[in-house]
UniProtKB/TrEMBL annotation:
Reactions that this protein is recorded to catalyse: 2 pyruvate + H(+) = (2S)-2-acetolactate + CO2
Keywords: Amino-acid biosynthesis, Branched-chain amino acid biosynthesis, Transferase
Family from the record: Belongs to the acetolactate synthase small subunit family.
Transmembrane parts of this sequence: none
Protein name from the UniProt record: Acetolactate synthase small subunit
PROSITE patterns cross-referenced by the UniProt entry: ACT
Cellular component, GO annotation: cytosol
The keyword Transferase belongs to this UniProt entry's keyword annotation: yes
The species this protein was found in: Sphaerochaeta halotolerans
């Protein structure tokens, strides 16, 4: 990522129909935009799904992405989730190689970061951690010397702080 590029989190409310995710992701692909993170799921209203996409770019590129995605047929809203005004979390499962001597260090770090131990074998420990990107990156940096055998990430999911919901944000607020 170059120095002008920043990470932006977009919450996209779409009709819950087959093929909608493919059309949204295809737009990114056709335009040459890279998706850093993607998560999707049904909302509190089964008629809608929420897609959370993290992209890197400069402000004009992100504004262009928001406008282009907003024009897609099944898209109801596109809203940028500002870091300080939103709660953004990711779930990561990581399998760490452990020798008998360093197993207690891995367990101690897991406790400090409030990671859950999901599986233990004679040579690995599988951990689950949820949190902000910074927390997860710090945890992974500390696990790296032990040897990360395998890892799976869910992608960022986000909600705006406060009482307002994505389905209630007006288009004029979207532009602000």
């Amino acid at each position: 990522m170059n120095t002008k590029e920043k990470r932006y989190t977009l919450a996209i409310l779409v009709n819950n129909h087959p093929g909608v995710l493919m059309r949204v992701v295809s737009l990114f692909s056709r335009r040459g935009y890279n998706i850093d993170s993607l998560s999707v799921g049904e909302t509190e209203n089964e008629a809608f799904s929420r897609i959370t996409i993290v992209v890197s770019g400069d402000r004009p590129v992100v504004e262009q992405i928001k406008k282009q995605v907003g024009k897609l047929y099944d898209v109801q809203r596109v809203y940028e989730m500002a870091g300080e005004k939103s709660l953004q979390r990711e779930l990561v499962m990581v399998k760490v190689s452990t020798e008998h001597d360093d197993r207690s260090q891995v367990i101690e770090l897991a406790e400090i970061f409030k990671a859950k131990i999901n599986d233990v074998t004679s040579s690995t420990i599988t951990l689950e951690i949820t949190g902000s990107l910074d927390k997860i990156q710090s945890f992974l940096d500390l696990m790296a010397p032990f040897g990360i055998v395998e890892m799976a990430r869910t992608g960022i999911t986000a909600l705006e702080r406060g009482a307002r919901a994505l389905s209630s944000i007006s288009f004029s607020e979207d532009e602000a």
